[in-house]
């Protein structure tokens, strides 16, 4: 019977193609594209489920500082599809309390079927020092839900901010050589200050200057160069509309203005 079964079906270890490195044994994981798409480590004999939509690529061979797994980039199809990095291990076993209940984990014992739920991508990770986490790449609160707009690391030259909960995204100044977040905070709205390196041929700055630093909500120049849109997201439909409706228990709120503070219309995306 075993011989007959092996003749008809291939084992998991023989399936898929070599993809990224396992953080436990440092051997290569195999990517199995058949649904549910997943990574399999033949040495550790463990399976790591992945998002079931979009394309999956290595993220510059960078590794997660928590578990040493190589990071992946998930890109949704189409010109308005979002991209976000994730660690296979953190996505399946979120290391921070509350993340696995925010969207439903893929761990055993969860009510979500394996491969169907959403774990913890880097855009939800509260790691304080990782340069790909929500803490370092988050810019400001989403205008559509309780999420946070996070810088898309692979969106150049069409730079953008993606909400880590809903399908809202914000187009940043186009054609810039580089856009990055800084550790500075806006004194008016507490959003992260971003640094923009404009193209010399299309720079809006006087005297041909290219480097500019400011807040996309409060700075008049940057605010005039951004545009709010909606696109394809892996988390589509999971965010709640309206910034005042709160979040699910154990979740992380987007950065919002202090309560009781009057809001200047130019400092928000309202009526954009």
From TrEMBL:
Its family remark reads: Belongs to the type IA topoisomerase family.
Q: What does this protein do?
A: Introduces a single-strand break via transesterification at a target site in duplex DNA. Releases the supercoiling and torsional tension of DNA introduced during the DNA replication and transcription by transiently cleaving and rejoining one strand of the DNA duplex. The scissile phosphodiester is attacked by the catalytic tyrosine of the enzyme, resulting in the formation of a DNA-(5'-phosphotyrosyl)-enzyme intermediate and the expulsion of a 3'-OH DNA strand.
Q: Which organism is it from?
A: Rubroshorea leprosula
- Specify where the region named Disordered lies, as residue ranges: 241-272
- What this protein is called in its record is DNA topoisomerase
Q: Name one GO biological process term.
A: DNA recombination
The segment(s) forming the DNA topoisomerase 3-beta zinc ribbon domain are 14-53
- Which keywords fit this entry according to its UniProt record? DNA-binding, Isomerase, Topoisomerase
């Amino acid at each position: 019977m075993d011989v007959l079964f092996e003749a008809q079906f291939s084992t998991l270890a023989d399936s898929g193609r070599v993809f990224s490195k396992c953080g436990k044994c440092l051997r290569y994981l195999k990517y199995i594209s058949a649904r549910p798409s997943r990574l399999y480590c033949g040495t550790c004999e463990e399976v790591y489920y992945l998002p079931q939509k979009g394309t999956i690529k290595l993220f510059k061979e960078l590794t997660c500082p928590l578990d040493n797994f190589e990071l992946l980039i998930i890109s949704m199809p189409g010109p308005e599809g979002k991209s976000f990095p994730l660690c296979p291990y953190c996505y399946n076993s979120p290391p921070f309390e509350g993340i696995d209940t925010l969207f439903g984990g893929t761990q055993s014992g969860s009510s979500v079927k394996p491969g169907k739920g959403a774990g913890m991508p880097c855009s939800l990770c509260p790691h304080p020092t990782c340069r790909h986490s929500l803490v370092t790449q988050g810019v400001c609160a989403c205008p559509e839900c309780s999420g946070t707009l996070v810088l898309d690391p692979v969106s150049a030259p069409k730079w953008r901010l993606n909400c880590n909960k809903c399908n809202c995204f914000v187009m940043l100044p186009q054609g810039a050589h580089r856009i990055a977040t800084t550790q500075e905070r806006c004194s008016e709205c507490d959003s992260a200050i971003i640094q923009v390196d404009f193209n010399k041929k299309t720079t809006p700055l006087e005297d041909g200057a290219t480097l500019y630093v400011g807040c996309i909500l409060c700075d008049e120049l940057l605010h005039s160069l951004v545009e709010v849109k909606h696109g394809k997201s892996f988390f589509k439909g999971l965010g709640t509309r309206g910034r005042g409706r709160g979040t699910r228990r154990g979740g992380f709120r987007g950065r919002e203005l202090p309560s009781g503070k009057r809001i200047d219309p130019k400092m928000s995306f309202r009526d954009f």
